[in-house]
Amino acid sequence: MAGNDLWEKYxxxxxxxxxxxxxxxxxxxxxxxxxxxVKITQILKNQEKVLAILGPxxxxxxxxxxxDKPRSASAIAVDSVRALAFNRDSFExxxxxxxxxxxxxxxxxxKRIHLTKRQKNNLIIKNPKTRIGDMLVLLAxxxxxxxxxxxxxxxxxxxxxxxxxxxFPEDEVLKILYDYEKIRVIKIQEDSIVxxxxxxxxxxxxxxxxxxxx
Length: 214
Hints:
Elements: H1 4-10, E1 11-14, E2 19-21, E3 30-35, E4 38-44, E5 47-54, E6 59-60, H2 62-67, E7 74-77, E8 81-86, H3 88-97, H4 99-123, H5 128-142, E9 153-155, H6 159-166, H7 170-182, E10 186-188, E11 193-195, H8 198-213
Antiparallel strand pairs: 1-8, 2-7, 3-6, 3-8, 4-5, 4-7, 9-11, 10-11
Helix pairs in contact: 3-4, 4-5, 5-6, 5-7, 5-8, 6-7
């Protein structure tokens, strides 16, 4: 994705589990992933919560340099990562010289505002089955999917990773996933979870939410 000239000037590499930046530290760079995956985490109630898993083409760390505030989350390399890193001056120059980057940022911000609101709403769901199902739909949304998709949706998340996202024990999450699998709305695979019918899953969650309100 990155041209040789850009890579020579701004390229950085990270090994698995490398901490790219930490929550609360000053923000001095924005990153554009070329290869590999990065997890974005936050410490909530003394527990690390995975907010997102990002891949090639995704940008992260931009809010800290745009708002001149400390990092609101940590970024950790999941596997070997190659990314372009821009400081504030080079980032502003990049945007001015590349209108398509500015347009991509606007789209990223709009999507991120929506998904941040969805993420916060997910955290206040008390029923584990409802929260887990809602998180699966949310992960599909992060991949650009809607509840009207007709084809199966593969999510690059394991039960363990999902447990970190919803802040429930892994064995409890796995039990609930098996319940969803029994009614054939999902399929658990070795390194992923496939949503067979996202509309059916969404309807199940809606029924559960309505029961919670009664």
